[in-house]
Amino acid sequence: MGAKYVLQASQFQFLFDALTARGYQVIGPKLQDGAIVYDALSSVQDLPAGWTDQQEAGTYRLENRSDSAFFGYTVGPYSWKKFLHLPARKLKRGKSAEGEFHFVSENEEIPKLAFVGVRACELHAMTIQDKIFMGGIYRDSSYAERRENIFVIAVNCGKAGGTCFCVSMKTGPKASGGYDWVLTEVIEKDRHYFVVESGTGAGKEILAGEEILKELDCPLAAEAEIALSERIVEETACQMGRRLKTEGIKDLLYKNLEHPHWDEVANRCLTCGNCTMVCPTCFCASIAEITDLTGEKVERVQKWDSCFTEDFSYIHGGSIRKTAKSRYRQWMTHKLAYWIDQFGTSGCVGCGRCITWCPAGIDITEEAKGFYGDS
Ligand code: SF4
Ligand code: SF4
Question: What is the count of structural domains for the chain?
Answer without folding.
Answer: 2
